Inverse folding.
């Protein structure tokens, strides 16, 4: 068991992107999907219990080694970088609407936000945080948008169910305004 955990850990360390169980099965064909899931669960629990700087997290349907949030500032200082391409408030608002209401059309986004945001959608498409999801079968056949796997990776989510509820968002906004 320890040997497979070391191999799994080495794969996670070497990968730039989250590693899914189907990818792992290509590397370890003698193990079933279920065995790999169980091994990853045990590895994740053991690794995370021993670490205070790193964690194995489920992100975008796969697994990834990440630094813990409390160390992000020191890492940024070490790398002499700024947070990667911050999104404007308009882009974050648009992205939030799309994430919670997908698939959604531009007119629907504009109605919710109260402003047109074509350039914002273009920016989000360029950053690969959203993608087109076909056309709505209504008059004019407007394009529909939804979030991408890159969105999940960027925000450290395993799937959309990990998004905060609207009540949780309200509480966070109230706390932010109070501080």
């Amino acid at each position: 068991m320890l040997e497979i955990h070391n191999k799994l850990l080495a794969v996670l360390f070497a990968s730039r992107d989250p590693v899914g169980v189907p990818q792992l099965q290509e590397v370890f064909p003698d193990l079933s999907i279920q065995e790999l899931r169980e091994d990853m669960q045990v590895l994740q629990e053991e690794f995370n219990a021993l670490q205070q700087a790193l964690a194995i997290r489920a992100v975008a349907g796969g697994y990834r080694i990440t630094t813990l949030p409390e160390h992000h500032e020191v890492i940024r200082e070490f790398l002499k970088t700024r947070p990667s391409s911050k999104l404007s408030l308009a882009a974050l608002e648009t992205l939030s609407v799309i994430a919670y209401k997908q698939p959604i059309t531009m007119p629907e986004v504009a109605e919710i936000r109260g402003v047109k945001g074509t350039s914002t959608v273009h920016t989000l498409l360029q950053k690969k945080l959203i993608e087109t999801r076909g056309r709505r079968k209504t008059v004019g056949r407007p394009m529909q948008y939804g979030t991408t796997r890159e969105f999940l990776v960027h925000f450290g989510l395993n799937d959309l169910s990990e998004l905060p509820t609207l009540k949780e968002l309200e509480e966070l906004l109230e706390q932010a305004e109070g501080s």
